[in-house]
Amino acid sequence: MEFALSEEQQELASMVRSLVDKRGDARIATYDESLWSTMVEQIGLPALGIPEEHGGAGFTLFESLIALEEVGRSLAPSPLLSSLVTSEALLAGADEEAKERLLPRLAAGEVAAFADGAEASHVLDGDLASVLVVATDEGLFEVTDAERTWTPSMDQTIRLATVRADLASATRIGDGAAARERAHLVGAAGSAALAVGCASRALDMTVSYSKERVQFGRAIGSFQALKHRMADMLVLLEMARSASWAASYAVSARTDDAEQLVHVAKSYCGDALAHIAGETVQLHGGIAITWEHDAHLVFKRAHALGQLFGASRQHRAALAL
Questions:
Q1: How far apart are CA 76 and CA 25, in angstroms?
Q2: What does the pLDDT look like over 248-298, one tens digit per residue?
Q3: Which sign does the torsion angle of CA 284, 282, 72, 67 carry?
Q4: pLDDT score for 1
Q5: Across the chain, what does the average pLDDT equal?
């Protein structure tokens, strides 16, 4: 691929950014149903990568991950990643009857969750989802009877839950191994995209603040040492974006090196965001450790994404195998 977005992809990113900038709120503990409805109705976000024959828009997973990056930039809670992971798990592992029945519901905006195992922790949006899909060694199941418990976390904008599913009353809908493999791959690529969006927001906040904050009669952004630190943040961001786009394209196109590129992206983007978030706090000074400023939201999101779908060290270890 060329490391540049097409005109249509740029327009999609712009539309999502405009919407979440106007409507997104990172200070609520769960997703805004009104904002999600608008994302569904005006842009069709959850339908982007779902084939037209299943009620989707017929684009690719790559467009969905571009949109996810912009959602990540807003810091607003959203069930988009969990819906993407679930729809891709269904496309990879579900039988045709299940695809025809469930994918149109996801395309229409129903919140979905994917659980790896009958007893799973840290399930994205697991307590809110109206469609719950569980993968085990015995198969892929649609679950209607499950105990779901919200899991408190540092970053409450990424909603997690513990799910205990009753598979005796569940419906087997396909291959659990294929669904699990695809879900983890898409989840890691999606987490990298969210990290790039968050890092972009952090850099924008920091540069803007450096132009406004005056010290010794000058804007602090004019000090050479701080310019160098922000330039380093930009380099990290652009390298992370390149890694994320490469992984997103590879997963979307199902290339032979997709898994390797996802490991690279998840490890690099997670570490890059952790550094950028730390610099954001440092360069904002005392205001960054107050509840009134959004810097703490960036810091929390960085640590949450660093663990979601595998820590950086786990993905680096996988590359060494």
A1: 5
A2: 999 999 999 999 999 999 999 999 999 999 999 999 988 888 888 889 999
A3: positive
A4: 47
A5: 94
Distances (CA, A) of 233 to 3, 6, 317: 20, 26, 25
**Is 183 in contact with 189 (CB distance < 8 Å)?**
no
The structure tokens listed for 35 are 């904002």
pLDDT at 242 over 50: yes
What letter represents residue 70's amino acid? E
Predicted pLDDT of residue 79 = 94
- Per DSSP, the three-state class of 216 is coil
Query: CB 178: neighbour CB atoms within 10 A?
Result: 16
Give the amino acid at 133: V
Q: 79-127, pLDDT tens digit by residue?
A: 999 999 999 999 999 999 999 999 999 999 999 999 999 999 999 999 9
Could you identify the residue written with the tokens 């659980």?
Answer: 115
Homologous superfamily (CATH) for 178-320: Butyryl-CoA Dehydrogenase, subunit A, domain 3 (1.20.140.10)
Dist CA 321 CA 288 (whole Å): 40
For 272, phi and psi rounded to 5 degrees?
A: -60, -45
